[in-house]
Amino acid sequence: MVIRLEILIWLSICTGISQAQPIVSWERENYVFREMNDTDVTITLVLADPAPPGGVNVELVFTDGTATTGNDYLAPNTMVGFSEGEKTRSVGITIINDNDNEEDDQTFTAEIMNNPSITLGTPSVTTITILDDEATTESMPSGFNLTPEPESILISWSNDGCPSNFNPEEFFIRINEEPFIRVISTQSSYTVPDLTPFTNYTFVIILKCQDFLGSQVLNTEPSSPIEGATEQGRPSEVRNLTVETIGATFIQISWIEPEVTNGIITSHRIRVNGTEVNNTGAVTNFTITALEPLTTYEIGVIALSANPIGGNLASIIAMTTPAAPDNMPADLQIISQTQTSLEVNWTIPAGSGPIDSIFISWEPLGDLAGMPAFSGTMSINAADTSFNITGLEEFITYNISVRFVNIGGSGPPETIENTTQPTNPSAIPNEIRSNFVNATSIVVDWDAIPFKDQNGPNFMYQLTINGMNDTNTTDTSFTFTDLTPCTDYNISLTTLNDVGTYPGSISAVTDFQAPRLDTITILPASTNITITWSEDDCPFENVVIEHAAINLPDGVTLPMGSTTIPGNQSSFIITGLEEFVTFRITVLFVSSKRNSSNMTTTTTLPDVPAVAPATLFEHSSAFTNINVSWHKISFLDENGPDFTYIVFYIGNGVEMNTTTLNNFATITDLEECTNYSITVGTQNSQGVFSNRSSEIMFETQSVSVPGAVVLGLSSSTVDSISISWTLPTSDPCPIQYINIRWEAISCLVSGGMQRLSDITATTYNITGLEEYIDYQVYVTLENTVGNGSSSAMNYTTASTNVPDSVPMEIRLRMSRATELVVEWDPIPCYNQNGPGFVYVLNINGSENETAETNFIFTNLQPCSVYEISIITANMNGISVIVIMVASFTTLPTVPSAPSDLTLTPTDTTIQVDWTLPSDPCPADNITVMWSDSITVMWIPAPSACPGIADGMMVIGSTDTSYTIMGLEEYTSYEVSVLISNAAGTGPSTSDTTTTLPIKPSQVPATITVSSTTSSTIYVSWNAIDCISENGPNFSYIVYYSNNGNETNMTTTDISFNISDLVECTTYNISIGTQNDEGLNTDRSTPVLVETYPIAVQGLTVISESVTSTTIDITWTAPVGPCPSPDSSYYITYTPLLSGTSLQTMSATVNSSTTRYQITGLNPGVQYRISVAITTNEGVLGPASSQTAKTDESVPSVNPGIDDVTFTPDGGLMVTFKELQHPSETNGDVTYMVCYTPQGGAASEMVCRNSTSSPVIFPNVNPNSVYDVTVSAINGAGQTQSDIFTIDGTVDRLEVNDLILVITLSVIGSIVFLIIIITLAIYCYLLQRKKV
Questions:
Q1: Which residues contact 1331 (CB under 8 A, 6 or more apart)?
Q2: pLDDT grade, residue 592 (50/70/90)?
């Protein structure tokens, strides 16, 4: 099994090293898209395996068929990249809906370009069809029937959807949401292949129908979705088939369901050595039973679904262990027993088979059962027939088990029960507790001692009271009765059993309680508390009564009280207390034995409060609110629950009140301008105290502003306004002032205000105003709170005058040759002096009026002189001030475009001719501009070179021709001619022409060889400058020659794969250029490239000649030019081992040799051997490879033992040095670790096999001396380590030995420190020397 695994690993490594080129193909051979419904679509590229590191680049070529790019579709970028790990890549295409009802279905192709870095898969060309769904029938296919299989579905239909005079020609089918597939068939059924088993699918079908004459083709409407599902298919093989547990007669396996189920897994078929043994159902684990010990089995698992064939077989190889011993020890008996040991004896029956060791275990029964501390195990030599179990507990019954053990497991146990000898108890309780006492009895108890300390039969506790009356009991408590009241007793306790009594005891002294209270009665009053009680059985001397106030507020204290009275009294009254205070009452009874107390709490009765606050204080009073405060009365004067303060306030003869727990209050919502009397009293649940605090007086203020006046009629002159108003009658408080304010409306003149102290005034005359101005007048009343709402009204002064001002200046600007814009600043509103104000403009004797501050004169004559003036006017007349403007000349018009533009090109010039227009205004100049033409059409432009310069030239205004020089050959230019004057530039006249072509002017400079095989050379080069192509149909010429025979190929790309070449041949390669005008006679710098040799044939390892250090190989030379006499064979041999220092080695032999012996190899190592032809120039051809393994030899190094230790759980752990290098192992090594009791027989040796260190032996007696060895074993033999002895009997050092060890440790530490310091100094000096 291990060898098979290694072979798989090395095969996978070899595969990874010689990784093939990525295989690229299209996902399908054809795609079909609908012209109206599909706009942005995708087609898919597929890699056979995920893209390797660095990714994969693929070049695509789209070729027009009946569909053309730009008209029917838009092709994407032609370079597509796969990132590392990707397997698919979508390529986007845009379908153009041209709304042409007459066209047929159209096609184009997409091809994957071959290059040396990829391998073309199938298909490498896919056809894309665009369905003309504008020309369709009005019906669709129907009557579908589906017949499913696991990987296909047969679809048939009864109605093809074609018109009566049409027959189906072919159809298109869409699977799920994928693009349509074209199927050329006239049948009414189709089997959809390559489907996934147990999967739901949706199909849509379109049929292409042709009339009987073949003159018209129509597509049907798409069918309704057709739903179907494939049947269940074969699952793949189960995963992670693993051996969980192995025994002598069984193997337990588990697995994970297949990654691809293709249905529902219902069961699994189990095969053992090719024979089916069970069907497990849906579980993923199984135990194979009834197997033979130490036998190799091949186990297989097949997953089953509804498909009867089942999945692929997954298998694994496993070997059962040897059988465990099948019998048990005979004659098991106890031959001796003590209080702490049991010696057991047995015999070994004849024919018991191999026994590696004997395993003994023991555990207590009864109360100690299940306690690991009292159980034990031991593994002893296989030849022993007795064992003394020591360290046991006295008088405990143990169950003892003995069984035989070998590498296959443990045999059945033989058991026996026996009890150790008894002894007297070994412990007594730690203490005695008296947990209940009355006048004539005492109850005592204690903790039970552990069962292991009882040590014998009939265990009991023995109690003695005052040295007499021994009492035995098995309980952990006892009640002494009929005792004398008020008497001391001494109680002692020990333990005993049938063997004897524990030599010791524990004692405790107890007595009766002091006097106790049968009853106590508390009767509180408002200022005293009465206490009564009854007498007890025993006399007491006196009684102490204490009282203390509790739960008082912070800062309040009351003195405590204490009174002592004779013991013969049975009542007492505590006087002089405060009302409604809680007291803690303690009654202490004192006797000659000890004191006893009783504690309780009670509260004195409540009364009405004793006082009221003396003085009130006013705080932050304002308007209709007042804040008052007072000193709190003492808590002791509150005298009862629910205590509050009462705030009384009287205003306008009405008394009101409010309550508060605080010593302050805010009285709100009082009447305005009212006097209030305020006092404070107290109350609780018992009533109101009769007195109140001293009185304070408070007058409220006004909180609202006055109301608004009512404005009345008015009169005005040119500079004044007289107003009147009516005062409000409902204000509660008097006003202080009347405020009058006025301001101009929409005119920037000053306003004013007046504050009248005569609060009875109802008229006012406002003077100093401007003529004919709108004013807004406000009247507001004011009191101590503030201003009330304003009353407002608009008034206008009178008008009698004409305007007394005109604009200071006017501004003129021309918007075009026939228009003039006049603008000015407005005169102030206070200079307009009346209604109907306007501006009057005069232009060359013509008047125009406007109320605006600008005016546009239109229909003027270009290049003409005009005079302009402006005055002002209103309804009262015209102003007498006039402003004059000097003459103004209008602008010219823009020139017209030239006509009769003619372009005459040569290869580098264009002659431009034109005719001038007849315009009224003269031209200043003529501008000729040229640039590359940008032509938008449906086919690519023949030349689109970047970087060609444009230009501009300004020439005389009377010129009618110009020659543009220095242009590029075979380039389209758009030429424009424009005429300019002071009014601007007129429209251009444009035309396009192309300079004449010539042959190419450049060739590529250098060639790059990208890859070479035995029959191909892939070359590339830098493209020449686009401008240097110089003509139509430009292409590159690839020249390649051998021995004077030259061949050439043409291409428009900048790379080319030269194929059909001869191996081991040198070719001269160069690149030229050409177009329709001719051939450039120059060529690029040539390169010489030699094709590779081909691979050797029939590489074979001669197995009968393989030794531990040599491998013989042979091969057949290929037919052809290679190998030539001056070539050779290059041989490499690589060890297939990871993590070692073995390197790849090589050898070279002449071309006449076809057999070689590889020497100097390591034994037991798998090698990959490769042979390739190499030419005399050093070109290495493809290699042929084989793998072979050298024979094993005995390991060359003994494994060394590092350490042997006893583990805490009773095991023996052996740590050893594993052989690391193949030169040490000489094959596949396992280790056998053995230990033998020192001086013991060979039959006492115990061994274990392992592949690694450490090895742990369980159940090893640590109190013995053992010899330990480790052997390294492979197929050729074994080597053994030196013997390592471990002595378990040495458990301490003598004093002298300890002193010697400490001394040596100190000396060793000093020497180590000196070495470290020396090395540090050396390293420092060495570093200084380097610096």
A1: none
A2: low
What does the alpha-carbon distance between residue 1070 and residue 1041 come to, in Å, rounded to a whole number? 9
Dist. CA 896–CA 989, nearest whole Å: 10
1034 class by beta-carbon count within 10 Å (0-12 exposed, 13-18 middle, 19+ buried): buried
Alpha carbon 508 to its chain centroid, in Å, reads 72
Residues contacting 215, CB < 8 A, separation 6+: none
Task: Enumerate the β-bridge partners of residue 62.
Answer: 110
Instruction: Enter the pTM of the model.
Output: 0.33
Q: Tell me the two tokens of residue 11.
A: 């095969």
Residues 400-404 have a mean pLDDT of 93
Q: Are 521 and 532 within 8 A, CB to CB?
A: yes
Is the per-residue pLDDT at 797 higher than 70? yes
Partners of 657 in beta bridges: 648
Annotate 133-161 with three-state secondary structure. CCCECCCCCEEEEEEECCCCEEEEEEECC
100 versus 532: which is more confidently predicted? 532
Q: Exposure string (b/e) for 713-734, b if CB count within 10 Å is 16 or more?
A: ebebeeeebebbbebeeebebe
Query: pLDDT tens across 680-690, in order?
Result: 999 998 889 88
Taking the C-alpha atoms of residue 186 and residue 191, their distance in angstroms, rounded to an integer, is: 13
Q: Compare 1054 and 622 and report the one with higher pLDDT.
A: 1054
Q: Which residues contact 113 (CB under 8 A, 6 or more apart)?
A: 58, 59, 60, 61
- Other beta carbons within 10 angstroms of residue 206's beta carbon come to 24
Which candidate, 231, 226, 229, 228, places its Cα nearest to that of 143? Answer: 226
DSSP state of 733: S
Assess contact for 986 and 897: CB atoms under 8 A: yes
Q: What is the CA radius of gyration of the chain?
A: 61
Residues 819-837 as b/e (b if ≥16 CB within 10 A, e otherwise) read ebebebeebebbbbbbeeb
Both structure tokens of 214: 């073949």
Cis bond before residue 123 (omega within 30° of 0): yes
Question: Measuring CA to CA, which residue among 102, 158, 169 is closest to residue 132?
Answer: 102
Rounded (10°) CA dihedral 466, 469, 470, 474: -100
Cis before 1254 (ω within 30): yes
Distance CA 64, CA 107 (A): 7
At 524, give phi and psi (nearest 5°).
-85, 150
Nearest to 257 by CA among 275, 280, 289, 273: 280
**What DSSP letter does each residue of 1197-1253 carry, written as one string?**
SPPPEEEEEE-TTS-EEEEEPPP-SHHHHSS--EEEEEEEETT--GGG-EEEEESSS
What gap in Å lies between CA 1148 and CA 1152, rounded to an integer? 12
Widest distance between CA atoms in the chain: 159
Q: State residue 103's pLDDT score.
A: 61
Residue with tokens 């530039």: 985
Give the separation between CA 978 and CA 927, rounded to whole angstroms: 5
pLDDT digits (tens, 9 = 90+) for 48-75: 999 999 899 999 999 999 889 888 888 8
Q: Which residues contact 306 (CB under 8 A, 6 or more apart)?
A: 231, 232, 263, 264, 266
Peptide bond connecting 835 to the previous residue in cis, omega within 30 degrees of 0:
no
Distance CA 337, CA 422 (A): 11
How far is it, in rounded angstroms, from Cα 297 to Cα 276? 13
What is the Cα–Cα distance from 825 to 1195, expressed in whole angstroms? 117
**Residue 1157 near residue 1151 (C-beta atoms within 8 A):** no
Question: How far is residue 662's CA from residue 619's CA, in Å, rounded to a whole number?
Answer: 15
Among residues 654, 658, 529, 641, the alpha carbon closest in space to that of 585 is found at 529
The H-or-E segment that residue 889 falls in is strand 883-889
